[in-house]
Specification:
Distance between the termini: 32 Å
Strand order of the largest sheet: 2-1-3-4
Number of strands: 4
CATH topology: Rossmann fold
Structural class: alpha/beta
Strand content: 15-25%
CATH architecture: 3-Layer(aba) Sandwich
Largest sheet: 4 strands, parallel
Helix content: 40-55%
Shape: globular
Order of helices and strands: HEHEHEHE
Number of helices: 4
Length: about 100
């Protein structure tokens, strides 16, 4: 049984999973299937939607990253060509270093 001090140190997360991906490459294929499967299993998952305007909503994404327990990074052919994706993955790595958060690639 975990001690009360261990339990009090555990962070509460809004999302269980944050999916990072390059929309043009994988949104309508792999990511849609992954998201649907996680949702079907009852796993509260964040993924951006198609209506986010580039560069305007990065703060919202950073907040969702900070509030997520696990990250799934879907590297695709053009992932690294997106400055938005690179900012996302940098933020994910920063959060993973300091918190109880884990990234999967």
């Amino acid at each position: 049984m975990a001690s009360s001090s261990t339990l009090s140190n555990q962070k509460s997360f809004k999302y269980e999973v944050f999916i990072s991906f390059r929309g043009d490459d994988t949104r309508k294929t792999f990511v849609d299937h992954l998201y649907a499967s996680l949702k079907q299993l009852g796993i509260h998952t964040f993924r951006d939607n198609e209506e986010l305007e580039k560069g305007k909503q990065i703060d919202q994404l950073f907040k969702a990253i900070e509030e997520s327990r696990f990250f799934i990074i879907v590297f695709s052919k053009n992932y690294a060509s997106s400055s938005w994706c690179l900012k996302e993955v940098t933020k994910i790595m920063e959060c993973q270093d300091g918190n109880q958060q884990i990234a999967y690639c």
